[in-house]
Write a structure and sequence with these properties.
Layout (H helix, E strand, L loop, with lengths): L2 H9 L3 H124 L3 H17 L4 H15 L6 H14 L14 H7 L7 H16 L8 H5 L5 H20 L3 H18 L5 H16 L9 H11 L3
Amino acid sequence: MNPAPTDNVEAGIDPNASGAVVVARGLMYAMVVIASVALIASVLLWQKLSNIQEQLARQSQEAGTNAIEARALAKQAEDRSRDTAARQTVLDTRLAEVALQRSQVEELIQNLSRSRDENMLVDIESALRLAQQQAQVTGSIDPLLAALRSADQRLERAGPRLARVRAAVLRDVDRIKGAPTTDIPGLLARIDEIARQIDELPLANAVSPASPASARKKEAPAKPVWWDQLLSDVRDEARNLVRVSRIDSPEAVLVAPDQAFFVRENLKLKLLNARLEVLSRQVDNARTDVGNAGAALRRYFDMNSRRTQAALQQLQQVQSQLRVTELPRIDETLAVLATAASGR
């Protein structure tokens, strides 16, 4: 069943030699396979290296392109940065100019406002000083209060810048309202009214009109004969020549009828002097003249007349209202106005 060895032996071939041949062939086949595998691996590696080189070449080309674009972009960015820096410089310059103009405008507005406030303060101060002089002349606080109220309205429109001045004005208004004063216009009006009534007051030695009986006789419808009429007229005239009345002041009897005009004018002059003295704030002299006018009224005029009594009562009221009162001053407001006008 083993013909091969027999044949090999018979042919004169050594079996060990054939085994070596087989091994040699196997080694040769293995080497071929290994070489083929190595060749295939080399080819694959070469292809892979070629692909890697191509990819590296593309990446290098792309990197170069990107670098060129980056340099271009960097140049553009640099140019834009220069333009931006130039524009920023221009804007900074314009901003500085605008800020300077704004500061100049604000300063101009402040100067205008300050000048307007100063002019208003000077105007208010002049008006208040004039009102104070009018109050001193007239003896009434009404001009001063009116000027202070007008100043308060103007200061209120000016806003909080002049709040301190307005506070001083309001304090003076409250102080003047509470100050005791004399109603000078009312006193002057009352004196003028008394002077107007002087011509209508009856004198103490004035002759009374005809009696009602004689008047009724004159109005009788009967017509007496001419001698009866003559006797009646003579009798009436004789009755009027003699009049019996009580006169406490002898000076009133001595006043002749043609001197009554001078008595009335003298009384008017006393009242006029009292009026002028009230205006000039000479209260004591005014009280003296009013008292002298009342004494003359009692001495020369009929005290039984209601008109005379009313005039004397008015004179007494005027004398009681005449008192020395110091008009309030506005020195605080004037001082604050001067300080504010000077800018302190």
